[in-house]
Amino acid sequence: MFMYFLPGKAKRENALKFFFKATVKYSVICDECYGVSSPIEGVAIWNRPGRRKISILGLLRSGFEKLIFTPFVFTIIKSLRLFLKTEKMHKKYAPHPHYYLSLLAVHPNSHGKGVAGKLLRPILKKSDRMNLGVYLETSNPKNVPMYEHFGFQVMEELKIQNGLRVWALYRPKK
Q1: Which domains are seen in the chain, by residue range?
Q2: pTM for this model (two decimals)
Q3: In this structure, are residues 50 and 97 in contact, taking their beta carbons and an 8 Å threshold?
Q4: How are beta strands 153-159 and 98-106 bridged, if at all?
Q5: Would you give per-residue pLDDT tens digits along the chain (174 residues)?
Q6: What H or E segment, with its residue span, contains residue 168?
Q7: CA gap 135, 27 in Å, rounded
Q8: Strand 153-159 relative to strand 165-171: parallel, antiparallel, unpaired?
Q9: How far is CA 89 from the centre of its chain?
C-alpha cells in the first residue's frame, strides 16, 4: 500500500523510517506491540478491544509531528478517502469488542519462516480466552491465504484505483 501512496523509492524509504519509528513508539505507549527475534525479523501492532480513538498526546509523544516535514504528509491527505472506506468496513464487520491487527510487518529475508505466525498466535490465543473476534485489513494478496490459515474469513474486497485492493478479514470469536 505504501508503494501506491509513495511511488518514489527514495522518498518512500525516508518517509517510512519516520512513520514506522513513530508508529512503534505510539503503539508501545497506547497499544500492544510485539517483535520477534534479535535483530527484529517482524513486528505486530494490535489495538486492544474498545481502543479505537487516537490519542493526540500519544501521537505527540511518539514523534508523529516530524512527519509533517516528510512526503508522508501528502500520503496522509491522499489516503484519507481510503481510510474512510476501510473504517466503514471495520465498523460493518467488527461492530463488537475485538482485537484489531493494525500492522504486521516481516523482514523480506524472513518471509516463509513462521515469523508471522509467532506474531499472530499470542493475541489469537488471548482473543479466544476472552471470547473476542479479531479484525484486520491487508492490501497484499499473498497474505490473504496466510490469514485464512489462522481462521480469518474474507469479508470484503475493496478495489481502489490503479489496481490497489484491500481485503477486510475477520476471525470470529471462539
Answers
A1: 2-171 (3.40.630.30)
A2: 0.76
A3: yes
A4: unpaired
A5: 555 555 566 665 666 566 666 666 666 555 677 778 778 899 898 888 976 555 545 555 555 555 555 555 566 666 667 778 888 999 999 999 999 998 898 988 999 999 999 999 999 999 999 999 999 999 999 999 999 999 999 999 999 877 889 999 999 998
A6: strand 165-171
A7: 17
A8: antiparallel
A9: 14
Backbone angles phi, psi at 8, to 5 degrees: -75, 120
E strand or H helix at 146 = helix 143-149
98 backbone dihedrals φ, ψ, rounded to 5°: -165, 165
| Full strand arrangement of the beta sheet holding 42-47 | 32-36, 42-47, 98-106, 133-138, 165-171, 153-159
Q: Are β-strands 42-47 and 165-171 bridged in parallel, bridged antiparallel, or unpaired? A: unpaired
C-alpha cell read off for 87? 473504517
51 Cα distance to chain centroid = 14
Task: State the residue for C-alpha cell 481502489.
Answer: 160
User: Grid cell 460493518 — which residue?
Assistant: 92
